[in-house]
Amino acid sequence: MEPKTLFVFTIFLLFVSSSSETLKKQTYVIQLHPNSQSAKAFPSKLDWHLSFLQEAVLGIEEENEDPSTRILYSYASAIEGFSAQLTESEAKTLKNLPEVVAVRPDHVLQVQTTYSYKFLGLNGPGPSSVWSKSRSGQGTIIGVLDTGVWPESPSFDDTGMPSVPSKWKGVCQEGESFTSSNCNKKLIGARFFIRGHRVANSPLDSPNMPREYISARDSTGHGTHTASTAGGSSVSTASVLGNGAGVARGMAPGAHVAVYKVCWFNGCYSSDILAAIDVAIQDKVDVLSLSLGGFPIPLYDDTIAIGTFRATEHGISVVCAGGNNGPLASSVANTAPWVSTIGAGTLDRKFPGVVRLANGKLLYGESLYPGKGINKAERELEIVYVAGGDKGSEFCLRGSLPRESVQGKMVICDRGVNGRSEKGQAVKEAGGVAMILVNTEINQEEDSVDVHLIPATLIGYEESVVLKGYVRDTVRAKARLIFGGTVIGRSRGPEVAQFSARGPSLANPSVLKPDLIAPGVNIIAAWPQNLGPTGLPYDSRRVNFTVMSGTSMSCPHVSGITALIRSAYPSWSPAAIRSAMMTTADLYDRRGKEIRDGEKPAGVFAIGAGHVNPVKAINPGLVYNIQPVDYVAYLCTLGFTRSDILAITHRNVSCGAVLRKRPGFSLNYPSISVIFRRGRTKEMITRRVTNVGSPKSIYTVNVKATMGINVIVKPKRLVFSHVDQTLSYRVWFVLKKGSKGEKVAGTFADGQLTWVNSRNLMQRVRSPISVTLKNH
Hints:
alpha/beta, eight-stranded mixed beta sheet, seven-stranded parallel beta sheet, 24% helix, globular
């Protein structure tokens, strides 16, 4: 008990030594009324924002404090307002001022790559390929909010790139180890936003943290990886220490990239994120890619949702990671209907790392271990599993493994608690020579690979049960590792990633989320030269590429594809571009089988509309368009208050008046989500589709009905006479009498509604359907 007591006492002394006033302050984002007349009385927007602070902050003159030092950011585009350091009482005072819409405490979010373009079919031959039709994304600008960028990476080489678009208003912000010369025609802009992070984190933490560049330079690799996935240049000799070798390209290799560093070692603060969105709008980006987020929160409290609504109003497509909290139901985040929410799927590429037990049994695993020291692992070694006690030895925490137990042996390590590669370092430090990393029940058969520091492989949960049973029942159990390099096309893909967050959305259940899945498992993309491929500080190896997994990786795939469609159709709205991807998404894998979610077919809450298919998305036939005013009406249908809608959309509206003008309104979303509440047995929705294909097209409807539901569509045939013509249809959903689902609250069912081009049967415009029964 003494060490713990001493630790608490030490922290207490540190707190006492700080001023009480500093401890009481925290960052708040203050949102102001967008049409305030009082702003005209001030020489600048900053002066106007400062006037609110002066009214709320008490006694600052006596303290000789300049109130302007409290302001972190003065926002102009993402919202009308500012962020500042305030005490709780000062925040309450501000909240009561008549021109203040909302006062929100700063939230911290977390961040959530060579073959995937081939898997998606982007490299097809001839002038009809996606890259040919879209000119590889030329002329578009992808803004990436993340941990920054390593500009020297070959993925940001600008050889062959066109000139920077004349509309570009951004800068290449100088900072630590970063100058304006680090930008070029590929990486056209870079900025960093640290004020929110800096005031929330004590300098006392810094000695224990890895080095962070106070600039747009990437210290952790995540931002370099995502930016290169979205718009990286072609690199002909890419691999991870020999594995996954090939030509690396981003999804939109002709697009320009602008980087906004908002994430630091302690996370991504909403005040910094909002400042980056604010500036990106002014910089004139075309696409915003945000591989960050957390758990779902209400739209009126969601900084990303609020800031990106203004981006959408400016014609910017916004793509966000859905989160890594799967397979938990209702874990999907970033669910605003003006945002494309992306889940993660697998590729059909594997990196075999097989465990051959001494009894001859083979346990399949995967690894990107490069081969150094492989002879030790390929001869039979004794296997040990050090479990029990309170040191966390089953997880192979550093310092937890007794040397006398693991010296010269192969060690079994359970996933969880610490990083996967860090476990290998713990084994190495204790004298172990190889590792078998095993999935626990929560991970099931997920196969995220790593570039391990020692010979090691990852096996699934079923194999782990066999392995542990073998070790338990065998005296001096032995095994060897057999590494198989890179294997493509012999496994099913895509499948839903175990970690990919699932719907339905808690904050926004009337819109089906996620929208799509995209490659997000074992993605190889660019990596900074200050880090080893594991990202661990004691990894001295250096590479230009490494492997990562997460919805952070699937998000930039869709961001890049969004840029391709934007380049091919520059007049399309963000909603039309998203519609093109959703209505053409795949429900079947490369073998023609249904996409799987573990042992079962994937449902709509796992894959949304399906797996993105850019080859089809570049020619969708029909699109579902949405204007910003439609989102306002949609929020009214959710029962949001006037102040909530003002906070989200910056529009002061009367929902009664809005809905009277649009009776029976339903958001023109490409997916269909129906909720039957108590006593309701029939629901009707309306949709509008715009012809973006052949001038004279005829589409007929095909419905795959949901369990216990009758679906009626009128009309059943849509006849278009010209391009850009919009036609409407209605869909009635009727509960079947006596259906089992009618009596079960919370029952979910799904189906599909597809419009088939009568003159081109391969052109199908499909909408997923989800039906929820509440309080029945």
